[in-house]
Amino acid sequence: MTDASPASPSALSSTAASPAPASADAVARRTLLIISPDYASHLLPLASLGTAWRDAGDRVVVATGASTASIVEGFGFERRQLQLGKGSNPGVIRAEEQQRGEDEALRGFFAATRQGMIDTLAFQARARLSDLMWEPARIAREVQAIVEDLHPDAIIVDHLAFSARLALVAMGAPYADVVLGHPTALPVGSEIYGYPPVWPREFAPDDSELAELRDLCLEVSAHFTAEWNGALAEVNPDLPPVVDAFAEHGDLLLLNYPGELSDPERTAILPPHEFLGSAVREEPEDLEVAAWLAEAGPFVYVSFGSFLSVRADVLARVIAALESLGLRAAIALGSADRAELGEIPDGWLAREYLPQVTLLARASLAITHGGNNSVTEAMTYGVPLLVLPFSTDQFAAAEALERVGFGQALAPNAASVDELAAAIGRIIDLPGEARARLDGLSASLRDVPGRDRAYAALARLSARP
């Protein structure tokens, strides 16, 4: 799943409406259906896209699970019950809060991250043999029932909601496919799902390990495609099977990513698409954070997201590196064991939940695992990044930032306090040319936010003959 900074479930809503992209009187009231897994890190950017329809006076309905119901309510949207998988995450994920089976899978994932990147990617690949298409035929019929009841004018779906997308394909319902991770979450050309096509400079995996990982990912792709085709035949036997289910996509691809960071050669072979830049959410005022910001000078924002905040050992080294440089920090602790962190320096802001967007708007540097929300929101506010990637598409995100000169990546299990401190010192003051380009990207992303880009792209899609 795409990771996000831990954020308070009661502080996840968008409470201030931006200017509506169209007058509510200009068009008849329409219905937008958003389909999302029951994960805050996925629902938040999807719901932020929906605010363009809400502010235009349209009806927005979100089909998702019960754990994120408060988020849907906070945005002022309607909710339809739809549980797309066995797990859930209302803001910070803990193994002990998951149902039986999911708790062990989560502990296994956390253990794999301590072994290294290949072990983690292999663990995630094997998990896909059972967790991406949970009861697909039943879920597909539930999705179809929701669509038939609502008759939505537009549908946007999380790309990873495979069972939901299968349902829409089976019933011939047009939809926009939102890739919330790095664009490589949709493989194109010779890419293989789950196998990183690029690596950051500091990462040099062994060739034999890479070959084994590639073979495993090919096996998973074949298994998943067979599962997709089996469910598709059950839901609509008139449709032909697909060659690679991971490469399937909607009528329009919405990439929650800045096009300026995308490799031009890869961009050229994408299906019809729109780069959204970032689906930045508006956050209600947090009085404690506002008071801290009023007195804080330059500071570094640190978050390993809703999953990987559990890696308190890495976070402890980051804290030591920042302290050695005399820098202040705001740290989203998430599920980290505070006993592993030691004393947090006086004057720092450290809480389980922090309003990430609010803090990135003022930060001088961010240190992150490389989750999509963290990367794209940092770009929106012109914040350079030190990335400590653990899994999935985080390696591709880190490589992109290094390629364009907006950050650096280090191996989280290997980077020492001194190495972290040296990297922080290099990145916090970008060279003039890179700083100017990052500022330009930030201005572009704030001038036309992702929600308005999505709104315009869906309008063009619906206008097609």
UniProtKB/TrEMBL annotation:
Tell whether Iron-sulfur is among the UniProt keywords: no
In Swiss-Prot or TrEMBL terms, this protein is called Glycosyltransferase family 1 protein
User: What's one Pfam family the UniProt record gives for this protein?
Assistant: EryCIII-like_C
SUPFAM superfamilies xrefs: UDP-Glycosyltransferase/glycogen phosphorylase (SSF53756)
The cross-references to InterPro entries, in alphabetical order and at most eight, read:
EryCIII-like_C, Glycosyltransferase_28, UDP_glucos_trans
TM segment ranges: none
- List the Gene Ontology MF annotations in alphabetical order: hexosyltransferase activity; UDP-glycosyltransferase activity
Q: Which positions fall inside the Erythromycin biosynthesis protein CIII-like C-terminal domain?
A: 319-431
According to the UniProt record, where is the region Disordered? 1-20
Record keyword Transferase present: yes
Enumerate the UniProt keywords alphabetically.
Transferase
- Organism phylogeny: Bacteria, Bacillati, Actinomycetota, Actinomycetes, Micrococcales
Please give the superkingdom of this protein's source.
Answer: Bacteria
UniProt cross-references to Gene3D superfamilies, sorted A to Z: Glycogen Phosphorylase B
Which biological processes are named by the entry's GO terms?
A: antibiotic biosynthetic process
